[in-house]
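User: Design a sequence. Structure:
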């Protein structure tokens, strides 16, 4: 006899990127504070392992009594290839899922839920809901990242790298300013939820877990990629960042935060090869690392959003914009709009660091975000979703 599955009003599928949890957990931590109404369903082993290594995310789940469930089954990366080998693998995958009753367990979860939240490109939950004709659950989508809109619509035009949505889809966004960008995907309904990561409750949680007790420079690293950031430029980017920081802040500790998809062993090997001193490589939560940073340097990543929440002086430094444009289209990130200098050379970075040293680069980003209205209860969330559905 199969074990019964508990019902949860909200199920959040974690299937693509740890950034999904960076986006969702501050919100869930608020609306699920007084009763267990949410369940995180991990359908990606990789994302689950990243979650298990993240002290802030684990503590947030514990504090808000959020349930977690893991249903892994993928034996291979999904592909639509008609290659006989992949067809056989798909058959084996189907048998494996059937043997573990995974699909049955997901159906039970869906039938016991009111809201199913999946990442913007879709997940397993919405696919199974459609296949099984489960219409009792409202499917809502959310972005991959916790950052605000970093996109200049005058450059973005109609090009996005997000799977197209539909006019009846509902997408959660942090604030109304993000809506014009996501409208380019064809999604028709948006629900701004606000910046819960700035709430007193979340900030108290963050500060209780901060590790470092001294000033440090925080560097948000990025993975070497042939299409966007070739290895030679990756090495130059990291080497010049270290040199620039050392010239302006000779004694400061440097904490390097790898990107979630980055090969940490490769980064450590590079640091040893360069004979870096006074450098720590940390996989801790980016918000925990940002809380005590003197300043931050990011390599075209949304990690820098975390330092902005604490009004930490921040710089975007990226030396492969030509490759980026060739691979992904026009460079559309608009950091300057957020008060973040956007530089391409070591000299440009040095000048920004000198400004920081003189106290001339002081962002006021968090104060602006605090003005955005937040949804602070499950009942309020229900009311907003019902209004959007009724408007259809």
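Assistant: Done.
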């Amino acid at each position: 006899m199969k074990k019964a599955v508990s019902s949860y009003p909200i199920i959040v599928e974690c299937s693509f990127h740890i950034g999904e949890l960076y986006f969702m957990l501050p919100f869930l931590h608020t609306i699920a504070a007084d009763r267990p109404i949410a369940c995180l369903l991990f359908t990606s082993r990789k994302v689950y392992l990243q979650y298990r290594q993240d002290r802030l995310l684990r503590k947030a789940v514990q504090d808000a009594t959020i349930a977690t469930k893991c249903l892994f089954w993928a034996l291979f990366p999904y592909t639509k290839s008609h290659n006989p080998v992949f067809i056989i693998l798909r058959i084996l995958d189907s048998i494996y899922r059937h043997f573990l009753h995974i699909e049955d367990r997901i159906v039970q979860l869906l039938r016991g839920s009111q809201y199913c939240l999946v990442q913007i490109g879709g997940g397993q939950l919405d696919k199974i809901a459609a296949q099984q004709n489960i219409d009792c659950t409202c499917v809502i989508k959310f972005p991959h990242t916790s950052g605000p809109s970093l996109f200049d619509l005058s450059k973005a035009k109609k090009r996005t790298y997000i799977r197209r949505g539909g006019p009846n889809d509902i997408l959660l966004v942090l604030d109304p300013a993000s809506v014009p960008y996501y409208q380019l995907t064809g999604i028709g309904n948006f629900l701004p939820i606000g910046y819960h990561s700035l709430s007193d409750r979340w900030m108290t949680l963050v500060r209780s877990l901060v590790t470092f007790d001294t000033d440090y420079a925080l560097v948000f690293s990025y993975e070497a990629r042939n299409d966007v950031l070739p290895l030679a430029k990756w090495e130059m980017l990291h080497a010049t960042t270290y040199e620039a920081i050392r010239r302006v802040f000779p004694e400061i500790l440097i904490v390097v935060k790898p990107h979630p998809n980055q090969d940490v062993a490769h980064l450590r090997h590079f640091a040893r090869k360069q004979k870096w001193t006074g450098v720590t490589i940390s996989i801790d939560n980016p918000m925990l690392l940002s809380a005590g940073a003197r300043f931050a340097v990011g390599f075209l990543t949304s990690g820098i959003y975390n330092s902005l929440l604490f009004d930490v002086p921040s710089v975007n430094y990226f030396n492969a914009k030509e490759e980026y444009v060739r691979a992904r289209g026009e460079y559309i990130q608009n950091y300057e709009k957020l008060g973040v200098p956007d530089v391409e050379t070591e000299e440009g970075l040095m000048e920004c660091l000198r400004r920081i040293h003189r106290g001339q680069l002081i962002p006021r980003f968090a104060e602006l975000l605090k003005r955005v209205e937040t949804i602070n209860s499950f009942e309020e969330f229900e009311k907003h979703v019902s209004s959007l559905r009724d408007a259809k």
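Residues 231-248 form the longest helix (18 residues). The CA atoms of residues 31 and 377 lie 4 Å apart.
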